[in-house]
């Protein structure tokens, strides 16, 4: 019963991505700013420091209102050790492609974990 009550409040998507990915998702309606003025997205460009990306990843994975965290795969590569260590069910972590960087299944930490479970 405790897991039901803890997951029922998770109703947001969070995104760490490039400007094009974030813009598209914001136009689709995922944008949210909570009562503490915290956004549910981080736009990453060439000037964004790795520490900023890691801090956003930690914040989004610790928030209790986020169900799914989307991250561009090429950005996940910048913080790969942190992404690979993440083991929680909620928020679910999904690596997505971007306009300039196609999806590479061999780099996806979740897919690697699933393949390990099935002995592939």
How would you describe the overall organization of this protein?
- It comes from Guyanagaster necrorhizus.
- GO terms for molecular function: proton-transporting ATPase activity, rotational mechanism.
- Belongs to the V-ATPase F subunit family.
- Its main location: membrane.
- It is a peripheral membrane protein.
- It contains six helices and four strands; from the N terminus they run H-E-H-E-H-E-H-H-E-H.
- It has 120 residues and is α/β, with parallel strands linked by helices.
- The chain has a single domain (2-117), classed as ATPase, V1 complex, subunit F (Rossmann fold, 3-Layer(aba) Sandwich), CATH 3.40.50.
- Strands 2-1-3-4 form a four-stranded parallel sheet, with helices on both faces.
- Strand 1, helix 2 (19-27) and strand 2 (41-43) form a beta-alpha-beta unit.
- Mean pLDDT is 89; it is low at 1-5.
In total, how many domains does the architecture comprise? 1
Please give the CATH class. Answer: Alpha Beta
Q: Strand tally, please? A: 4
The largest sheet has its strands arranged as 2-1-3-4
End-to-end distance, in Å? Answer: 35 Å
Provide a compact summary of the structure.
With 120 residues, the protein is α/β, with parallel strands linked by helices. It contains six helices and four strands. The protein is 39% helix and 18% strand.
């Amino acid at each position: 019963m405790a897991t039901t009550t803890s997951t029922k409040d998770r109703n947001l998507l969070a995104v760490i991505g490039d400007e094009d990915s974030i813009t598209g998702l914001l136009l689709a309606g995922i944008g949210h700013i909570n009562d503490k003025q915290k956004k549910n997205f981080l736009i990453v460009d060439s000037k964004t420091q790795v520490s900023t990306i890691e801090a956003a990843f930690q914040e989004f994975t610790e928030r209790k209102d986020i169900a799914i965290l989307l991250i561009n795969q090429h950005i996940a590569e910048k913080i790969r050790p942190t992404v690979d260590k993440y083991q929680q069910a909620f928020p679910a972590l999904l690596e997505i492609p971007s306009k300039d960087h196609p999806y590479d299944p061999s780099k996806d930490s979740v897919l690697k974990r699933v393949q390990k479970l099935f002995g592939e």
